[in-house]
Specification:
It is globular, with a radius of gyration of 26 Å. It has 14 helices and 28 strands. The protein has 567 residues and is an alpha+beta fold. Strands 1, 2, 3, 4, 5, 7 and 8 form a 7-stranded mixed beta sheet that branches. Helices cover 30% and strands 21% of the residues. A hairpin with a 2-residue loop joins strand 12 and strand 13.
C-alpha cells in the first residue's frame, strides 16, 4: 500500500496536464490516507464516461462502531443503510464540487429513498467497514486537472469520510433508533405470520404522500390513520413497546368507498409495506407480508408458456392456455399471467386495484351470465377463483373495489374508506348477500411451477452482446427492451441494476435447459445470502449501486423478455 504523499505527488506533478487516460496509472492502487485507505478499483477512460469506482476502507479500531450495531442480518442492513444516508448527506453538505468537464468532480454514493433495503454501498468486513463510492476524476477538456483532483480526493473526501464513518462524529442515539425501528418492524412482520394476519397499519400512520412523484409523507392536511375498533390488534414491540393498529387477516379483503376517499392510497401503502421504512415516513409501521405482489393488467406484454387455464380456457381460436404464449397479451390474459407468475415464485398475498385491472377479468355480473352462457365465455373471472385461492391454496387477496358489490359474498373482511378513515363494514356488506354462491368450476385452480428456461433464449455474453439497466424500469438485452414499468414494487434503480446482474449471472451459470424459473431464482438467492451481491456482479471494480430485489421482481424481468423460450 502506498502513502498519502505518493498520491499527492501523482495528482499534482506526474499526472497533472496529461491526457485523461493517464489516470489509469492509479487503477488497482491502494493509498493510506491516515484515517482510511482508498482503493481505486476502476478508472474511467474519459471525463464523460461512467464515473470511476473507489472503495474507502476504515478499520474497526479507527471507526469505533461496536459489533452490536451489525451483529445480525436485520441490524446489519439497517446499520449499512444509516451510514449510506450519512455519507450521502455529508457529500451534499460538505462538498463544494470542483470544476471541470464531463463528470469532473462528482462524488456519489447510492442514495436511499424512504425504504430500507440491503445495498452494496456499504460492506461490513471482519476487521473494517467499506464504503463504495463513484467519483468523476477532474479534467479540463480531456487533460487531467491535477489540483482539482487533489482538492477532491485529499481535501474534501477525508472530511466527508471522517464525519460519516466515525462513531465520534455520529449521533449514536439516532443510529440506535434507526436499527431498533428495523427490529420492531421485522418483529411485527413475523408476528403477523404466527397470528394469521397478512398486514398491519399502525394507528396515527400518515398514508398519503406529498405528491404523485414523491414518496415523502404529506406534511399538511393529512388525516392520521386510525383502526376500526373491531379490527384493532396490539403488538408489544422489543423497543417501542405497545403499538396498536389495524390488522388485516389472511383471506379475502375488500377495500371499498367512494372515489378519492383513500382506497388506492391504502393499497399503495400496503404494496410498499413489503419494505421497512425510515422513521417519520408515516408508513414506518405499515407492515405487509413480504411475499405480497401487486398484480395488474398489462396490455401488450409478452407471455411465454404460462398456464392460465384456471382463468382462461377454450379460446375460440383453439389457442393453448395451459402453455399460453403471446407477443402482445390482452388485459385479461396479461393479468392472468401476472397472477400465475407471482404464485409460481411464492407469493402468498395478491394486491389488486380494479382501476388497473381488466374489467372482464375481474367480474361478470348475473345479467351478463344469463345473456352469455359460460360455454361461450372463455374467461373465468377472478371473483370465481378468489375464495378457492385462499381456502385451498392459502393465497390471500386484498382488492380495491369501488364499482361493484358482487365481491361482497366472497369477502372475509370489507373495509370502507371514508375521507381517509377506515370503517369495518363487513357485517353490513354480508347482509346484502345472505346466501353465498357455491363455487362450481369443473377444474380446480392450477398453479404451474415447471416452466424450464432454455439457454437459447439469450444471446451469448461475449463480443458486442450487452445487458444493461436503464433507470428504474428498463433493462436492455442488446436491442430488446424489458419494460418493468408495471412492476410497481421496484422502488430503486439499484434493484434494477441487481436484476440486470442476476440475469447475466444466470445466463452464464444457472440456465441449463433443466432448471425451472423458481429453481434459478432460489439458486440466486442462496448465492446472495451466502456470499453477497458481489458474487453475482460483472461490474468493473466492486459495485456500490446494487440493492437486493425481491424474487417476484427478478421473475418479472425474465417473464417480460420477449425472446424468452421455455419448455
Amino acid at each position: 500500500m502506498r502513502e498519502y504523499d505518493d498520491l499527492k505527488e501523482l495528482l499534482l506533478k506526474r499526472l497533472n496536464g496529461k491526457g485523461y487516460k493517464a489516470y489509469k496509472e492509479i487503477q488497482g492502487q491502494s493509498f493510506n490516507l491516515g484515517f482510511f485507505e482508498i482503493r481505486f478499483d476502476y478508472i474511467q477512460g474519459d471525463p464523460f464516461a461512467s464515473p470511476s469506482k473507489i472503495r474507502i476502507i476504515v478499520e474497526n479500531n479507527k471507526h469505533g462502531f461496536p459489533g452490536k450495531y451489525y451483529k445480525n442480518k436485520i441490524r446489519e442492513i439497517a446499520f449499512k443503510d444509516y451510514l449510506t444516508r450519512i455519507i450521502s448527506n455529508n457529500i451534499y453538505s460538505i462538498y463544494d464540487r470542483v470544476s471541470g468537464s464531463g463528470k469532473s468532480g462528482l462524488i456519489g454514493i447510492d442514495r436511499p429513498g424512504q425504504e430500507v433495503i440491503d445495498r452494496t454501498s456499504i460492506k461490513i468486513n471482519k476487521n473494517s467497514i467499506e464504503a463504495r463510492l463513484e467519483i468523476g476524476l477532474p479534467a479540463f477538456g480531456r487533460k487531467i486537472a491535477g489540483k482539482e483532483a487533489s482538492d477532491m480526493i485529499l481535501g474534501y473526501l477525508p472530511k466527508i469520510i471522517e464525519k460519516s464513518i466515525n462513531i465520534k462524529n455520529i449521533n449514536e442515539s439516532s443510529l440506535a433508533r434507526h436499527i431498533e425501528l428495523a427490529e420492531d418492524q421485522e418483529y411485527i412482520r413475523e408476528e403477523l405470520k404466527k397470528k394469521g394476519y397478512c398486514a398491519f397499519i399502525a394507528n396515527n400512520s400518515i398514508l398519503p404522500r406529498e405528491s404523485g412523484v414523491s414518496q415523502r409523507p404529506m406534511k399538511e392536511g393529512a388525516i392520521k390513520f386510525i383502526s376500526p375498533e373491531s379490527m384493532k390488534i396490539t403488538f408489544n414491540c422489543p423497543h417501542r413497546g405497545e403499538l396498536s393498529g389495524m390488522g388485516i387477516k389472511k383471506g379475502v379483503t375488500l377495500i371499498v368507498g367512494g372515489g378519492y376517499h383513500g382506497k388506492s392510497t391504502l393499497l399503495k401503502a400496503l404494496e410498499l409495506g413489503v419494505y421497512n421504512h425510515i422513521a417519520n415516513d408515516g408508513r414506518e409501521f405499515v407492515i405487509m407480508d413480504n411475499s405480497a405482489v401487486k398484480v395488474r393488467a398489462e396490455d401488450g406484454r409478452s407471455v411465454e408458456k404460462v398456464n392460465i387455464s384456471s382463468f382462461i380456457n377454450n379460446l375460440p381460436n383453439g389457442k393453448d392456455t395451459y402453455k399460453f404464449k403471446s407477443e402482445n397479451a390482452s388485459g385479461s390474459t396479461s393479468q392472468s399471467s401476472n397472477i400465475i407468475e407471482a404464485l409460481e415464485v411464492g407469493a402468498k398475498t395478491l394486491l389488486i386495484d380494479e382501476d388497473t385491472s381488466a374489467t372482464n377479468f375481474m367480474i361478470r355480473d348475473h345479467k351478463m351470465k344469463m345473456l352469455i352462457h359460460k360455454d361461450k365465455e372463455p374467461i373465468t373471472p377472478f371473483i370465481d377463483r378468489v375464495k378457492e385461492l385462499h381456502e385451498k391454496h392459502g393465497i390471500s387477496s386484498i382488492l380495491v373495489i369501488g364499482s361493484s358489490g358482487e365481491y361482497f359474498h366472497k369477502a372475509d373482511t370489507v373495509i370502507m374508506m371514508d375521507e381517509y378513515r377506515a370503517i369495518d363494514v363487513t357485517d353490513k356488506a354480508k347482509e346484502l348477500f345472505m346466501k353465498e354462491e357455491v363455487f362450481n368450476n369443473e377444474e380446480a385452480f392450477d398453479i404451474s411451477c415447471n416452466r424450464v428456461i432454455m439457454k437459447n433464449s439469450f444471446p451469448r455474453l461475449e463480443g458486442k452482446s450487452k445487458i444493461k439497466s436503464k433507470g428504474l424500469s428498463k433493462i436492455l438485452i442488446n436491442k430488446d427492451e424489458i419494460d418493468l414499468s408495471s412492476v410497481e414494487q421496484i422502488i430503486s434503480g439499484s434493484q434494477t441494476n441487481a436484476i440486470t446482474e442476476i440475469i447475466k449471472y444466470s445466463i452464464k451459470n444457472l440456465i441449463d435447459d433443466r432448471k425451472n424459473l423458481k429453481d434459478i431464482i432460489n439458486g440466486i438467492y442462496t448465492i446472495i445470502e451466502d456470499k453477497g451481491l458481489d458474487e453475482i456482479s460483472s461490474s468493473k471494480g466492486h459495485p456500490g449501486n446494487l440493492a437486493i430485489p425481491r424474487k417476484n421482481e427478478i421473475a418479472a424481468a425474465f417473464n417480460r423478455y420477449r425472446k424468452l423460450n421455455v419448455k
